[in-house]
Structure formats: C-alpha cells, structure tokens
Queue: 4 jobs
Job 1
Amino acid sequence: MFPSAINRKPKSLAEAIESEDNELASMRYPDLARQLYDAIGCQKTELEHMICKLLRVQTCRIVPSNLWASGSFNAAILVRLPQGKNAYLRLPFGHRIGEGPFPGNADEKIQTETATYMWLQEHCPDVPIPTFTICTPFHPPYPTLPSEFLLTSEAQGKRLDRSWHKHHDDENRRKTLFRGLSRITVSMNAIPQPRIGALRLQDDDTIALNNRPLNLYMHMLENEGVSSGIPRGRMYAEVDGYLSDLLSVQEAKLRGQPNAIFDVDGQRQLAACAGMRAVMHHFVDPGTRDGPFYLTLNDLIQSNIFVDEQWNVTSIMDLEWTHTLPAEMQSPPYWLTSKSVDGFYEQKDREEFDEAVKEYLTVYEEEEVRRGGSGRLAEVQRRAWDSGSFWFFRAATVPKAMYNLFNWHIQPLFNEAHPDQSVFDEVFFFYWGRRASEFVDDKVRERKEYVQQLSEVYRDMGIVE
C-alpha cells in the first residue's frame, strides 16, 4: 500500500481523451510525488531530529512510508510522539502547484496557510484548530527539502466525510454541524479586513494582508505553465476588479490548456465567459463592493472538518486557500445535499438544496445574534441566495463548473428559453474577443494534436485497448 499520490491507477486511453484535465501533465504526477517521498525517506533521521527540537520532545518517529497519506496538493507524513500523541508533517507537492514554472508558489502556499493558523490562534481562539502549527524555514540547519513545510498536531475527532452519508439526514446532527460551522464564520467575521487578499507570514515572523487572494485554480493553472495574470502582490479594494480577474483566470485556462475546447463547445464556453462579464454588475451589491471584507475558509469541505459522534465540530484542518471576501460571497457550503457544485440540474435537487441553505442560514443568523450581532451578515447571504448571486460567484470561482452554472442558474434569470437554444451561443461568443471564431478553430486543431500526442504516449507505455 502506498500514498494515493503514488498509487494512482492509469486511466484508459478513452477516459484520458475525454477528461477535461491535461492528462499529458497529470500522468507525470505519480513519479514526481514518488521523488518527494524518496527525498523525505532519505532524510528521515534528520527530520526526526528536527521535529524533536521544534516540539521539545525527547523522541519521535516518522512512520513507515506505506502509512503516509496525501491529498491533491500535499503530502502528509504521520509522526509518532511521546505519550501516544501524533503530529503531521505537511509538504506541498511542487508539481501540483506550479513551483517549476513559477518558483515561489510552494512558499506562497505554506506561508499563507501558516499566517491563517497564526491569525486564528491570536484573534479567534474559539475556532477549533490544531493545538500547534509550526512553519519550518527553508534554510540550514533544517533538512534540504524542496520547500518550507508545516508541522501540525493531530486533529481531534473524526473526519466528517466518514459519517456524512450515514447521518446527513439526521436533523439534530445536521443542525449541530451547521451551528459549529456558523460559529466559526461569525467569530472570524468579528474582525473586518480592508481589502480582498490573503494573509502571509513575513520574514520577521509577523503576518500581513499583502498576498493575492490565492485559490487552488490559480496554482493549478500556473502548474501547466500558464500565467493566472494575478501577481502575488495584487489585492483588491473592490469586488468588481476581483471578479473580473477571476474570469480572466478562466479565459487564460481556455487559451493555455491544449484540450480546453473539444469542438463546437468552444462557442458555448466563450459565450458563457462573455455572458458572465455582461451580467456581473447585476450580482454585485453596490453597498458592499468596497468592503468590508472578512477572512474566509474557502476549502471547508467534509474531509477537512472533524467532528464528534453528535457532529459537534472539534477541529478544522488544511486552511490553505483562505483569503478575505465580502459577506455576499461567504456562501453556505455547496455540499449540504451531497451534490457537486454543478450538480443541481434537476428541479428536485434544487429544491432540496434550497431547503438546506435556508436551514443553514437560519442557524447562522441565530449564532450571529447570539454573539451580539444584528443578523445583518446572515441577511446579506440570504439576499445573495435569493438573487442568484450565489451561483454567479461560484461560476466565477470554479472554472470546471462555470458553463453549467451559467447555463442552468444564471441565464434563466434573464431569458428562460436561451439555455435550451443555440442562438445565444452562436451570436454572443463573438463578443468574447476579437477573432473569436478563429480562436475556436485553432483550439480544436490544438486538441487534435493533443489527442495524437496522448495516444502516442499510451502506445509507448504499452497501454493498449
């Protein structure tokens, strides 16, 4: 048994061709992850010595490599400590976040996450996070690994995703969970921030709000050598510029990914991009476009939430991608009814999610009032849900979901017939940019070349169908 980042079963050629990901890049990930694990293994003794010094313990032991874990963007190395305690050594996968083409991305990821932990420890002690978080400097006398890394205590409780499907219909557990999540957000919202951006650890061990509002899609795009167009030092004093740049990230993906456009779907994608820009002003509240903004946990999925048997939140982990947002973009989790963010096509699924959102916001408002607030931010989120802004902000943020969200949830607000007709796509895609038609033709040819390269690689690997 090996970490999932290494033990990845290859897709069939047909699956690879149909995939929306760049499989020429992703098929290299297991070997690159193995290189990182080998580097860790070669320095196991030095790492254990370093951990003992940092935690001021007499002994520690890094478990055998077959017990190591990983997520999409990090390796997680379990460390046994005295008295039955555990810690995790977390390192970013440089090959997943663009460290090669954009040096410094790994440090950006670690330093922004570390700053979030430090800020919460100082300003929101009621938010349940690991009891210690240490960011190791990337210089001697520490072991020579590819980047800085985090050392965190083990989370208390069990991961929510392990009991979600069994108990998500239990109203008591669900409301307990909603209350715990609401308390976290309300606590963090007690301290408004002046701009949209991410906190970052500075060289003097202080923290500052001076980094771009980093999300996983920026690093995923940069990982393929395509600039996101958002430099690390860029922050935003108003919402419109931020949303415009998020849409530019999606357009950069269309330009830079070799298999981004299959065929005539190119017209649909470009029309959706142009449509998003055309209607953006309908979804931005003029009263809050200049702030205030609030530090927001943008990766709060079930696997990062730890709970007890009754679903009281006992800890949250993996605070990567945290940055400030306006209250209207602090939406309830999309996974409340176990659907993907673009999984709400059927009316019954939308109605079920609507009920869950209303239940969540009711609990959120109760918590906001309980802490001495007026319920104002709950009302802001409620307006965002009722107006359709919830779907617009999700579409602007998640490239893979943008077209479906625009087609199913945004277009019908302006013309109910257009989602089922081609007339909108055939006309509006021209307004994405000059030479839009030629761009689609070029991308279709580029994808054919990509498929040919992919087929040759599979042949060379001996994978035939």
Note: The chain has a mean pLDDT of 92.
Job 2
Amino acid sequence: MENQRQLSSSDEIDLIEFIILLWKKKVIIIATTFICVVIVAIYAFTAKEQWTSKAEVIAPNAVSLNNYLTIRREYARILGSDFDVNSLSNSLFSKFNQLLYSLDERENFLSQTEVYKLESVGKDKEQQRVILNKLVRENITITKPDEKKDSKALWGGVQVSFSAETPALAQDTLKAFIKQISQESLDYNFKSFLITYNEKLTDLRFELNQIKQNVDIQRNVQLENLHRALDTAKRADIKDYSKISGEVENNLLNIIRADTSIPLSESPLSDNPYLFILGEKYISAQISAIKQNDIIYPPKYYQIQEQITKLEALAQKFKEGKLETNAYTYLSSPDYPVVKDKPKRLLIVVAGMLIGLILSIIYVLVTSAFISRKKEIN
C-alpha cells in the first residue's frame, strides 16, 4: 500500500514537472506551432481547388427522341412494319453508355475544353500529355447505382461526374461532355439506320425494275403473237371475225371476255393458235390499243412505286432538317457544386496546428532529456 502511494505521488510529481517544463518552453512550442500553421495555411490557400459537378441520366423517352422518333416511325409506317420505341431508346442509350466509358472519346472531348487549355498553358508536349491523361482517367467518373442499395438503379441509369477548379467550369464541362457523347451515339445510330434505309430503297427499286421488265417482255411477246396471228389472218383472207361452231368458238369467246380482266402476263391472247380467227380488223385493233395505251402493271408494282416515292420524300426531311434528339434523359441535370472537394482549409489548418504542437512537445522533451543526461554525466 505504501509503495502504491509512493508511485502515485511520483506520477503526480512527474506530471507537474512535465507541465512546468512545457510552460517554461512555451515560446518554443508556440513558435513551432505557429510556423507549422503558417506553412499548411499557405498550402491550403494556394493549392488548386477541386469542385465536382454530378448528373444522373437514364434511357431517352419519347420527348428526348424528338424528331428522330418521328422519322423512324414514318419509315416503319411506309414499309408496313411494326415499330418499337423502347428498342430505339435502348439502342441509343446502350451506345451512349459504351461511349461514356471510352477513353478515346474522353480524350477527344477534353483536348478541346477550357479545362485542358488552362492547365496546359506554358507546358511542353510531354507535360501536356500527362495533364490530358490525368483529366481523362481521374476527372471524369462514371458510376452505376447499386441495385441493392439505391432505388434509382431500377431506372437503369448512370451517374456521371466531372471535377474542375471552379464550380462553373465543372458544371459547363460536364454538360458539354454529356451532349457530345449523346451526339456521337445519335450519329452512330443514324448511320446504321441510313445503311438499312439505302439497302431497302435499293431492294425496292430492283423489285420495281424486275416487275417492269417482266411486264415489258410479256407485252412484247403478246404483240409478237398478235402480229403472227394478223399475218395468218391475212394469208387466210379473214377480214372479220368468222363464226365457227363448236368448242373452238366458245373457247375463243371466253378468251376475249377474260382478256380485259386479268393481268397481261396471264392473258390467253399472249399465245393462242386460234387468234387469227378473230380476223384482221379485231387483231389490228388489239395491236393498236396495246401500242397506244399505257401499260397496266400489277398492283404490286404501284405499291412499290408508292413506297419508293414516300421513302425519297422521307429522305428529304432528314437531309434538310437537323436531328434534335438526345440519347439520354436527365434524372438530374449537372448540378452547380456548392461544396468543394479539396482543399479542406479548416481541416488542414487544424491538422497543421496539431502537428506543430506535437513536434514542439517532442522537441522540448528530447532536448530536456538530453540536458538532464548531460548534467548527470558531468
């Protein structure tokens, strides 16, 4: 018990001596702490600031797709096919996501921005390359919400952020970046659509030409058969229709009646050995009518012709007008940051003060111990 009291008394004496020692060396402690505070304060108030603007985007809706949606719908309507708005939206947003992560796209964009120009002024090419690489890899951040923790993940969107030296620069640069990536996505999708459009137009023109060629060939064959029948009628000296009995007459009359109601390609007058019986007058009239009148094509021909006309008119719409379409919809647009990321000046100053205080106390204790040791030796 007596030993414990002595130890307790000794600890109290040591603590008092420690406090007295610090008080005696207060000038050194205050001076050291002040110097550390000044040093970190200089850093805190001269270091480059960093502000981060954030935005959240999801797949584009009908409003965002704007006139591009109108064009795609009209294209499907002309061809009589179904059109899925969600498919177009997902296709655009998928490409948008892909380009967001592309380092090449980031580099192409950032190399033209005010952020890069400000940081690269007076730097050589190697330093400029380092600055650009840092901006590409560190200043742009893409984050997908965690489905387990964030309800916004159900929207299937992404969070995009950009850091710069001023709030306005961070916000403006992020807006421009999202806009450019959106335009790149739209251009890619539109080029893919143009390939499909041109292929379809080529196919329709080819099909139209095939129908025309077939009908022209059939017309020429019919005329040739009629000329042959006319020649036979002249040789047989049949001026007008000769009535004949039996099955031949009935068949021929049926052929004549049917010829006005069926396509040229299926006309029995195209090749019939009994045509000459109609006589020179009728055959000549038939030849004259075929030559003078316009060719009547099958319905399919006019349907294709109408489709081609409408597709060509549609092409004028997207050639003359600009596509005002976004490959995204904002869940929250780029914000104007009000709290900077760094430097945290107050924290830095407090940390500097603590470091100065600790260093000065260590210095006082070490020097005091060294002096005491020296006295003991002497």
Note: The chain has two domains: 34-201+322-354, 211-317.
Job 3
Amino acid sequence: MKDAAETMKILSAYDLTKSLRGAAELAGCSHHTVARLVRARDAGQTPGSGASRPKVTDVWLPKIEEWVEASTGRIRADVVHAKLTAMGYTGSERSTRRAVAEVKAAWRAGKRRVHRPWITEPGAWLQYDFGDGPAIDGAKTVLFVAWLAWSRYRIVIALRDRTAPSVFAALDRCFRLIGGAPTYVLTDNEKTVTVSHVAGVPVRNQATVAFARHYGVEVLTCQPADPAAKGGVENAVKLAKADLVPKDTNLRDQYASFAELEAACAGFMAMVNSREHRVTRRRPDHMLAEETSALHRIP
C-alpha cells in the first residue's frame, strides 16, 4: 500500500498527464495502481486507504471488550483465547492476541463503546420473566418462562401466583431440569428481587439474597430499555403465550384442570427445545448437553 506522499505524487502525475500509463511512468509504478487510486478519489473515498477486510475476531470484539473492562485491562490474551474457544471461536491465538492488544489500547485511551451487543457464555446466564396464563375455573394462572441464554433452552412452568415462594420453587425446578445452576439469574425489577432503590442503587429482597446464597447464584435485574439482554426471554414469553393460552389463533380448548396446563407446558418445552433455533442453527436440547458441564452443582 502506498503512503500518503506516494499517493499524492501519483495523483498529481495523473492530473498532469491525464493518462494512466503516462502517470505510471512519471511516478514509477504500475498503471493499475494509478487506476485504483483515481477510482477511489472519484468515488469520494480516501485514496490509498484500501478496503478493510473482515477479521475472524470482529464478531467477538464485544465480548473481548467486556472482559478487558471487567479486568481493568489485566486479562491475558491466552486466557481470552481459551474462553473464546470454549464459546465456538475458530480463529488462531495470534489473531486473538492482536485483537486483545487493540482492545486494551483503546481501553487505556478511554475509547470504550457505549453499547455492546450481548454475547453469551455457556453456563453464565439464565433469564426469567412472566406471562399471563389461562384462567382455570375462574382463577388466573401465571406462566413462568426461563431462558438459558447460551443454549436458548426454554422452560415454561405454570404457577398460581407470582409470590416469592412460587418463584423460588420455579427457579429450583429450572435448575434441576437443566442439571445445575448458572452464574447469574437475570430478571426485571420484580418486588421478589428488588424492594426499592436508594440513590439509584437497587435494594434486594432479603429472601432473594438468601435464596441466591443457597444456590450459589447472583440475581441481577435488567437495565431499562435493554433489548440486547431482555429480548430473548421476552420473545420466549410471547411464544409460550401464543401456544398455551387458548385463543382464536390457536384454537386450543380451555383447560379443565391445573394439571392439564402443566402437561401442556411440558409438551411445549419438548417441542421448542427439539427444533433448530434460527440463530444458532442447532437444537437447544443438544446445546444444553454441552452447557451442562459449565453449570454449578445445586444443593
């Protein structure tokens, strides 16, 4: 690639001669080089800058930035490479080292991105949310929907209410269904999790704190208007409600008992977890078999 001085010399020669070959003779380069620089200038591009080629590390940069920031710039490149490889990265360690060096340089210069797409890690995140379930004998029900973020494995449990004991029982069942506990449990600012905010800092429900300590998880709440983190479980809630709640669009019969609703939830889980996910192009139940090894043991 020509430097700035050579580029200007070549373009000046072309402006003088109006000939590709004439400019090439004056500048001492190939007429193909002259043509490329002239085309770039005429297209409004920076001559000689060249087109940037995609790198194998590009899609992983948000995760590298997250780790560099969390470690205050101390994480080693070989550690990053091992963690990325476990998540499906196929690039070389040399590419990883180059990317980590660039991210660390940007971090030290204070050039951190405001928004980063969420790249999940195996065994790290389980999200849960709620949807209105069908009425049975005049009583409302609740659909507890959980989503294991890396494998996209979805769990739907029918509840009679959203009280803390019901939620804790549903989470316990989730952990046992997936074969372990994740590092983080993420949800909205439910009163079962956050009782208030003081100076913008969430005050956790003490029952939730005790539950989290017992299972060795950290319960976190979503930031407002954060589709990157909340979108997965919210879509799972919409899908569950569309299939399980009787309406004209699915022609499902009304449930005669709570046990029927529980059986329908089990059938829904078997269906959605055994079909290929449109993002990963893999079945969630197959990915769960890999993710289970990254989960923590439950008491």
Note: The first helix runs from residue 4 to 17.
Job 4
Amino acid sequence: MAYQHPGVYIEELAGPQQISGVGTSTTVFVGWTEAGPLNQPVLIDSWNAFMRAFGNFLWGHNVPFAVYNFFAEGGSLCYVVRAAPNPPSSMTSASVTQGSLTVQASSPGLWGNKLAIQILNYPTENPPSATPKPIFTLRVLYAVPTGPMTIVDSLVSRYVVNNQLTTVTTSSRSYWLVEEYPGLTAADLSKPDVNARSALEQRINSQSLFIRAAVTDIAGTRPNNLVNPTSLQGGGGDSVTTPVDYPTALASLNPRNDINLLVLPDTGMVDDYGLQRSLIQQALSYCESRAPRDLFLIADTPLGLGVEELVAFKSGTASSSGIIPAGNALNSSYGAIYCPWMDFFNGLTSRSVPIPPSGAVAGTYAETDRRVGVFKAPAGVLDGKIASAVGLTALFTSTDQDTLNPNGVNAIRNLARYGIVTYGARTLSTDTSLTYISVRRLLIYIEISLYWGMQWVVFEPNDQKLWGSVNRDVTQFLTTVWQAGGLFGARQSEAFLVQVDASNNPPESRNQGMLFIDISVAPVRPAEFVVIRIQQATLPTG
C-alpha cells in the first residue's frame, strides 16, 4: 500500500493460525432399516428426520431403536447407513393376503414365517364366529417356539413376559398374542386413490413393530374372518446364511471426515456367536485402519449371556457352557463393549421392548461431551444415567462386575437411589495405558484436531520461523485442553510438552521434506476406585 499523504493508516495483519477442536460425538449407525438408500451415509438431526428418511420401529432390527435412544439421551447429530445382504434380494418378507388386505412382516427374514394373523368380530365372541360382522379385530400372533430358540424368539419371549401378553392355543399349536387392532371397519380400508393410505394402513404401519399392512381395493371391503391363526409365508434369509454386508456399508464412510462414534446395533441379532464377534472385530479393524483414525466403536454383547460367557466372548476363549466358541479376542483401544441389553418403553404402544444399549450409550457420550468434555468418562450415576431404559435383561451385582470390569466388559447396572446407569468406562484394549475410554477419545480429539489444524504447514519453508509458529499454535491449543480439565498437572509444563526445533528436525530429515512435532500429554484418568479411609482416633482429654 502506498502512503501519499500524512495521516493514520490501518492495516490488518494475519495472526497466528488457530487450531480449533474437532467434533467428538457425531455418531454413525449402520444396519437394516425399512426404507432409505443403501450404503449411503445420510445426515440425521432428529428422530422425525430419521422416520422421514428410513421409516419406523420394526421387529428384528435395532437401528431405529438405537437412533431414537441416541437422541433421547442427548445426541444431536448422526449419520445413518442402511445396510443389507448382498444381494438385497436374498432376504424376503413373509406375507399373507385376505381379500383386499395384505399383511407383511415388518422386516425380511425367516422369522416372519412364525407370524400369524386372526380376523375376528369385535367385540370378541366366544367361541369366535366365522360369519363376519361390520366391526372387526386384527390380531397379530407369534408361534411359541417348540425347539431351540433363535435370538428373535428370545426377544419375543421377553417382550411377552415384560408386557404380560396372553397365549392363544389352538388344536395344533400355541401362539403369543403380540399385537391387536380392535374396532376396524370397512371404512378403515377405503381410500380416495391407490396412492393414498387408508386409515387402517396409517394406524397399523405407524404403530406395529411386527407387521405392515397394505390395502389394494380403494372401495374399502371388509376382509372375511380368519378364526384360525393363518401363518405368514415366504420369508427367506437370516442373519447367518444371508448376513448384512457390513464391509460395503463401512466403506461408504471413507469420504466422511466429520464422524466420531460408530454403532452397529444389529450385530446382536446374529444367531452365531462366533460370527457376532467376527462382525465386531471387522468394525474395530475399520476404526483402526481409517486415515486418520478418528472413529470409536460402541459395541453390544450378545443377548442373555452369563458373566463367564460374556468374558469368553470378549477374550476369544470358549465358554465352559459351550455356547461361546473360541476365536480372536476383541482387543482394541478404538472400541468399548456394553452389557446387558435394556428394556425401552415404546410410547406408541405403551409396551417395553428389549433392545441393545449401544444407541442410548452413544447418546450419553454426546451429552457428557457437551456438558463436560471428551476427557470425561461417560459413566457413573451422573454422566452414565440412561433415562430411556425402564429395565435390564440381566441384573449384575458388584461380584459380577469384579469379573467383568478387569476384562474390559462395561456393565450397565440398576443402582438403588440412582436408577439405570452405565457403570464401566473401559476400552477393549489390554494396553494399560489405553484402558480408559476417556483417554483414548481425548487422544483422538487431540490428534484429529492437530491433523486438520496443521494442514497449513504443508509446503511452508521448514525453518526456525515455521518451528516457532507451530510450537506457538500447538501450545495454545493444548493449553485450552489443559485449562478445560482434560490434562493432568498443576502447571502447564506438567500437563504437556511440545518440541519442534533443530533437535528433532536435523538436516537429514529436513532434506527429505519432513517436519517432526513431538508432543507429550498427561491425560486425566477417571477415579475408578474410590477408597475412603476412616481411622478411629482417641482424642486427648483435658
């Protein structure tokens, strides 16, 4: 700028490069949903946004429940990747048609063949009549298992017990009455055109966990009665023979650099426990191999395991019961695992549903990050409270946790006076320096913040001026982390150390275009074991 006349001139000078902290709680949910694009991350900021893009709750798949509880527990932003078997057509949904009404299982798979329906007059007659009356009831039943139980069978069984549902017995077999829609008429099946939804479709498809309804006749014709339970047919595929293609779904995340937590809530639906563990291992490997390594997995244990079986599942050993096979251990600081499953209260039906806890736990991570910081363990009676849980599928004692905790299995417990809380804060790693979730996530936060905040350094002259600028910027960033409570030390020199000078950047490394920045940090670790020492003292008299 040329100065032509006397006076005061103002110029703006470039200041130091600010290193901004990256986000820590944007979560990715991967699994089956009833709608949405396949293998494409879709940004979701609310439960309503999820329903518009991916549909409602459905039995046999847990992504909708996980996303709902993520937002309920404090989460604010997530991506959802709809994943399916390869090819998707390898799984089909069971269905049955009566008149103009078609009833289909809410999700594909063999499990839908265990569903049956009844169409009865309303109010209920005893014995039921085959002659239809204007008002009718649609009943949804699930065949009571007579052999080895699948995961879906076990979930339905708990659903029936928790909600005190009734059993319907016929001459051939018994059924659990899982849903009932009374007070329907022919008018509920009518609609103005084929693209509209009838009142029956709106009611059932917005409330049912087990079925979806479709009406083909716009005139609205009442279906004939089905006094005997009539089974749905044509369901094909299962979690073992036609597994979800997780590698393709995870690969769709490669371009994303704004994600922090990973949840795969459907791994627990796999009936092969060895395959369950393998799927979690795949997710851990993905987190470890990303460049940069910015993702942390929140995993679920299988449903209904005992303490010894849970440890065997994590450690890769075979359980004495023979339920858990031997395999590779889950050993990584880029993930944590939680047990048991929780009961979630579904307000649409006023019934509790057993679901894996990972979605709710991810919500507590997000809320703890927002309220305190990523350096705080998302556990305990304050930051680990799971308000959306109304029960647990197992009640662990302190003795149980004596075994689970050292083995890196985080227990969720129902504590007197406090309710249901996450009571573990450990990663899956056997490395003692990376035992705690908060330490690993703090290191991820620091590393990724520096990764993006130092991009300006590339191609700058590698000299003392650059070293001084880098030292200043990194020191300023780590000072904010220390002052927020993330690093241990009464003085800055105790909390972290930054070195970028001639001693770690000799001529030979500079000649290769290398710049080395050595950083040491002292993360704050959680007070996992609080020991209160009380001594009885005899005070002097006088």
Note: The chain has three domains: 27-86+243-437, 92-231, 460-542.
